[in-house]
Amino acid sequence: MRKRQLRIFAVALFAAVLVFALGACKGRTVSSRLGEKSVENMIEKTTGGQAKVDLKDGTIKVKTAEGETEIGTSKTWPNDLPADVLKPESGKITGVVRSTQEEKKYWNISFEGADAAAFDKYADALKAGGWDIKMTTKTGDGGLFQAEKGKLMVVATFTNAGKNVNLVVTNQIQ
Domains in the chain: how many in total? Predict the structure, then answer.
């Protein structure tokens, strides 16, 4: 079952790249609409017809019996994140992916242009907010840490000397 979820996610990610490329052409041409329909059909075929696919406004939503994934062009902090998850103070959001699988909800938020001290600042802000830092690893080019608070977990990665930030937030659903 895990392999199937990974395949669905990979196809959805490929489809997102295709849709974003088609969406770069601002006009809603016949070819872009046909491209979107082809992507929908491809995902549905890959899942044996077990997926409901919705492509609109630059967002791909794939829903199966195992859960759902949304890959979009949103460049804003997700308003459905639990309030305890803090936004890093620097950097610009470049993408957001949402997913619900096996009683967990996930958000993957990517940033670019963070300041070099973003890694330590974000970890310190979470600690001050009552988070427990479970693991920290630093390299010459970046690092990662895992923080937990209640049913929430944040895995933060920093690359390119801390300038690129990726947050994966997990929330155990009741």
Answer: 2
pLDDT tens digits, one per residue of 158-168:
987 768 999 99
- 67 vs 49: CA distance, rounded Å: 15
DSSP state of 86: P
Beta bridge partners of 72: 96
Q: How far apart are CA 82 and CA 41, in angstroms?
A: 34
- Mean pLDDT highest for which of 7-11, 56-60, 106-110? 106-110
To which residue do tokens 């963070």 refer?
A: 114
What is the Cα Rg of the chain in Å?
Answer: 18
Q: Do 128 and 153 have their domain in common?
A: yes
Last residue of one domain, picked from the residues 45, 66, 87: 66
118-135 tens-digit pLDDT: 888 999 999 999 999 999
Coil vs helix vs strand at 23:
helix
What is the domain range of residue 169?
Answer: 74-174
